[in-house]
């Protein structure tokens, strides 16, 4: 039963990954990534990582993908497919891309040799012993215990990093004044009284408009 | 299923993501392919964690997910900023830093 489930889920994982790379429209790439993530969560469940599988579905396939869908809808979705990308705008670029694809294939061979040819005995086994229970390997109680004792520093550092990333995204994507339309200019804010015209905006770096 | 099968799937997913990073031109798709590479590494981490019966690999997988979320956050912010300045959404055209 578990091997049938493994094959179905891994076909989903690999098909989703190939779909992300091959599909022309970024919107469909995002949808392919969602199916890839859900299939990957099934593989995590087969590996007895219940909490990681739940986080994968809720956070990744739920929250992060919604962000992607919004940005694809905002930016618009015209893109070259993989074939057009390989034929490329110029001969040099297309040859470089073909080289990249060949390099990726070589990477696959190398990874397979490195992972499967290690000579580790345990790689061909089913893994360590597992007995179901409320606090056993992979359950939320087990992960939470580890996160708040042995890996407390990693937990705190990653929470701080999320905060920095959120602030950074707001700073990067905020609407800057100075490059917009002229009618934005007559919205006077209290900040304009204390700072000279044109400073503190992107107009400062670009210079006066023609 | 033995652990080796899971490792093979993770290697395939990682390489497909690497091929995407090296061949696609749209930065949005590039970010998606980076996610694929991180997911391949995650699958290997969870598989090794199962092999040893030890939770450390799963914690590391959770941290990798956090890093991926941060990367998506910053990357999409940059794409929105590029779009606002009406620059082309194409990594081949964006070569201002190249001098």
Can you offer a commentary on this structure?
The complex is a heterodimer of chains A (about 210) and B (about 100). Chain A folds into three domains: about 80 residues, Four Helix Bundle (Hemerythrin (Met), subunit A) (Up-down Bundle), CATH 1.20.120; about 40 residues; about 45 residues, no CATH class. The model of chain A has no long low-confidence stretch (mean pLDDT about 80). Chain A contains nine helices and no strands. Chain A is mainly alpha-helical and about 210 residues long. With about 100 residues, chain B is mainly alpha-helical. Chain B has one domain: Orthogonal Bundle (Helix Hairpins), CATH 1.10.287.3510. The radius of gyration of chain B is 17 Å and the shape is elongated. Chain B starts with a helix and ends in a 15-residue tail after the last helix.
SSE arrangement of chain A, N to C = HHHHHHHHH
Low-confidence stretches of chain A: none
Beta-strand content bin of chain A:
under 5%
Per DSSP, the total helix count of chain A is: 9
| Subunit organisation of the chains | heterodimer
So, CATH architecture of chain B? Orthogonal Bundle
State the share of residues found in helices of chain A, binned by percent: 55-70%
Portion of residues within helices of chain B: over 70%
Largest sheet of chain B: none
DSSP, total strands of chain A: 0
Uncertain spans of chain B: none
* Chain pair sharing the greatest interface: A-B, 90 and 72 residues
Number of distinct beta strands of chain B: 0
CATH fold type of chain B: Helix Hairpins
**CATH level 3 topology of the largest domain in chain A:** Four Helix Bundle (Hemerythrin (Met), subunit A)
- Give the percentage of residues in beta strands of chain B: under 5%
CATH superfamily of the largest domain in chain A: NADH-ubiquinone/plastoquinone oxidoreductase chain 6, subunit NuoJ
């Amino acid at each position: 039963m578990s091997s049938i489930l493994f094959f179905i889920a891994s076909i989903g994982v690999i098909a989703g990954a190939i779909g992300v790379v091959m599909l022309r429209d970024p919107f469909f790439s995002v949808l392919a990534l969602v199916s890839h993530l859900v299939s990957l969560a099934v593989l995590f469940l087969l590996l007895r990582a219940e909490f990681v599988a739940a986080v994968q579905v809720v956070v990744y396939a739920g929250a992060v993908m919604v962000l992607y869908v919004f940005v694809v809808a905002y930016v618009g979705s015209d893109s070259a497919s993989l074939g057009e990308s390989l034929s490329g705008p110029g001969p040099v670029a297309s040859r470089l891309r073909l080289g990249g694809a060949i390099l990726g294939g070589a990477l696959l061979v190398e990874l397979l040799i490195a992972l499967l040819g290690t000579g580790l005995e345990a790689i061909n086994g089913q893994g360590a012993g597992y007995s179901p229970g409320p606090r056993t390997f992979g359950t939320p109680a087990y992960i939470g215990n580890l996160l708040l004792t042995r890996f407390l520093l990693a937990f705190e550092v990653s929470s701080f990093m999320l905060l920095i990333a959120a602030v950074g995204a707001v700073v990067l994507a905020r609407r800057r004044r100075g490059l917009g339309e002229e009618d934005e200019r007559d919205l006077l804010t209290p900040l304009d009284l204390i700072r000279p015209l044109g400073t503190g905006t992107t107009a400062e770096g670009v210079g006066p408009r023609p | 299923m033995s652990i080796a099968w899971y490792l093979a799937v993770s290697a395939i997913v990682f390489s497909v993501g690497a091929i995407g990073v090296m061949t696609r031109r749209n930065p949005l798709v590039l970010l998606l392919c980076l996610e694929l590479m991180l997911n391949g590494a995650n699958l290997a981490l969870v598989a090794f964690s199962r092999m040893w019966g030890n939770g450390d690999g799963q914690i590391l997988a959770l941290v990798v997910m956090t890093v991926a979320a941060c990367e998506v956050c910053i990357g999409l912010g940059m794409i929105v900023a590029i779009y606002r300045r009406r620059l082309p959404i194409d990594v081949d055209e964006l070569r201002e830093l190249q001098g």
